[in-house]
Design a protein that fits this description.
Two copies of one chain form a homodimer. Chain A folds into three domains: 4-47, 434 Repressor (Amino-terminal Domain), CATH 1.10.260; 61-157 and 290-317, 3-Layer(aba) Sandwich (Rossmann fold), CATH 3.40.50; 160-287 and 321-342, Rossmann fold, CATH 3.40.50.2300. Chain A is elongated and about 90 Å long. Chain A starts with a helix and ends in a 10-residue tail after the last helix. Chain A is built from 13 helices and twelve strands. By secondary structure, chain A is an alpha/beta fold. Helices cover 42% and strands 16% of the residues of chain A. In chain A, α1 (4-11) crosses α3 (30-43) and α8 packs parallel to α9 (189-204). The longest helix of chain A has 16 residues, at 72-87. Chains A and B meet through α4, α5, β2, α6 and α11 of A and α4, α5, β2, α6 and α11 of B. The structure holds a DNA duplex.
DNA sequence: CTGAAAGCGCTAACAT
DNA sequence: ATGTTAGCGCTTTCAG
């Protein structure tokens, strides 16, 4: 591993001239530059990031914490983020918090020790102390999918509540009055917002809410659904608050031969591959996953490069209602065309 | 940021005592240790990895290169690997090569510059020069999903050819004689092996092969399928060589109202969520994704910790034929039970 | 415009 | 068992 000093020796100049050429820190005579460049190529010099960090610089590395990399939603996010980071000259230290705030915190601190230039996180709790310490030490942080309570944090989120309301409204227009909302036990921002959207919309229409909570404590959807069906008034539509829940619901419905779209309308939050393979195809709220990732990196880079010093901004991205057939909407020629699913470019 | 020297000063001992306590390098008197530990806690010391790297140590970081993090197969791999790495005290530098050998190489070299302790890669070409340079500099490398031609490389792969043969055999047992194999234009190990398995099995049975290549050059499946159907003998079964291709096939079949399982048997390689949501459910070859990731990390750690110095081993993992209904097999009570999909723990 | 020296935090090697 | 020193590769500072 040749060092800066080696280059200097070969080029016959001082170390600082080499440093200046490499970093373009200051003016250097054309002749010196030529000699240095030649020497660099000749011995194959590559700067040591470790030495720079030791001198107080930050690593050209971004940190990324998501709950689960295997989750299609986060996988697409992670992919975009890593790509954008690479294009900007950064590598990505990526970790799954496994939905645990303790792991999230621990990994965030390890990343800080490594002098990452910035951090993108899908925080498990809105009130993280590592975030405060991070900001204190000047580390830019962008929250994704869920905001941080700290007013100084940038965040990229979507209009969860609004999306939820639009979806429920659509169901109401189909004449549904008893809409079951399926959620899980996680008390996270997105779920809560979506639930609120559902509740508000139902109440505004003068209707009762009906919520099925799925999870280790409450049990699976399959376990709870029979008794839900047995209780009047029977729901005629199901709104699943994320892709995983939608899949669970659909799977159970298929198993029990409840005909989706006929016996029971089914709609979901998050678009997923299977949504267009099933007949009828599932109506969903689509989140702009790719855009979210791009935005997060863009905001982070702004902070890193010191271009922005204002207090934290919340970028709220628009969701899209993808009306297909599972809500009761009829088939249409254009609707039946197989569309490429966003984010699945391969 | 308190340093080792700071701790030494506060504890009233020499720097090396502190270093020894922190790293457990050598015996230290109980008293000194107590003083040091107290001082560390008091001023909140945390070791600087950069300084260690400068001293010639390696970072406690693993590199991971996959073609595409958004691809469900690799997303699950990545998740497992990152988890196993974390459990072993390593962070993971993760990057998508976007199926391009140039990006793979470039990122691998950046990782090496950062002094990663080991690298797991899904190589785009079997013959990478960065790998050679890596080994030369003592960097352990494990290839995943596809082997490297270098005999000294560890690899974790599956029995692609055998799996393919078993699948085709199953189709033959159903009485199919004209089986269409759908593949893509990527000339990668897995695809080639699976194709070979198909071809060998067909030839062994005295049957002709029929291959539909999908890609930018050849065109989409939808474009080619009509003419395939028009040509005698008409295929009665389709074998898609990966999950993405299977989805493309299924989507087109749905669109053209070809009834899967009745008009046309459809089977795939790689299990995917949608496979069990569709009726009939899709018969597939399941790869042990989680096991692959775990194995890769385990092999890498062995090398890193110097426990193994033998030449490269190829670990070949067994695949599993998941017989469902799309191949023509009848429904059975146990088969209909919704199973949890491996790797999707959330 | 260029160079020399000091030092970032750590540990290997050598004292004690 | 413990302390001291030198130096990893780089940049900041100060002198030319």
């Amino acid at each position: 591993m040749p060092t800066l000093a080696d280059v200097a020796k070969v080029a016959g100049v001082g170390v600082m001239s080499v440093s200046r050429v490499v970093n373009g820190t200051r003016k250097v005579s054309v002749e010196t530059e030529k000699k240095v460049r030649a020497a660099i190529r000749r011995i194959g010099y590559e700067p040591s990031e470790a030495a720079k960090i030791l001198k107080g610089h930050r690593a050209h590395v971004l940190g990324l914490i998501v709950p689960d990399i295997a989750d299609p939603f986060f996988a697409v996010c992670a992919n975009v983020i890593q790509l954008a980071a690479r294009e900007a000259g950064y590598m990505t230290l990526m970790v799954a918090s496994d939905h645990q705030a303790t792991i999230e915190k621990q990994q965030a601190e390890l990343m800080m020790q490594r002098q990452i230039a910035g951090l993108i996180t899908v925080p498990m709790v809105a009130d993280t102390d590592y975030f405060v310490r991070g900001r204190a030490s000047g580390l830019p942080i962008v929250a994704m999918d869920r905001p941080l309570s700290d007013a100084d944090a940038d965040a990229v989120i979507v209009d969860n509540r609004d999306a939820s309301m639009r979806m429920v409204e659509h169901l109401l227009q189909h004449g549904h009055r008893n809409i079951l909302c399926v959620t899980d036990e996680e008390k996270i921002f997105t779920r809560l917002e979506r639930l609120t959207g559902y509740t508000q919309c139902m109440h505004k229409a003068g209707l009762n809410t009906r919520i099925c909570m799925v999870g280790p404590v409450s049990g699976t959807f399959a376990e709870q659904f029979p008794s839900i069906l047995a209780t009047e008034p029977r729901p005629t539509a199901i709104f699943a608050l994320n892709d995983l829940l939608a899949v669970e619901v659909i799977r159970h419905l298929r198993h029990t031969h409840v005909k989706i779209g006929h016996d029971m309308a089914v709609v979901g939050f998050d678009d997923f591959d299977a949504a267009t393979l099933i007949i009828p195809r599932i109506t969903v709220v689509r989140q702009p996953v790719v855009e979210m990732g791009r935005q997060a990196v863009s905001m982070l880079l702004q902070r890193i490069e010191g271009r922005s010093t204002e207090p934290g901004k919340h970028t709220v991205l628009k969701t899209e209602l993808i009306i297909r057939e599972s809500c009761g909407c009829g088939f249409s020629k254009t609707d039946m065309k197989p569309k490429s699913v966003s984010g699945g470019k391969r």
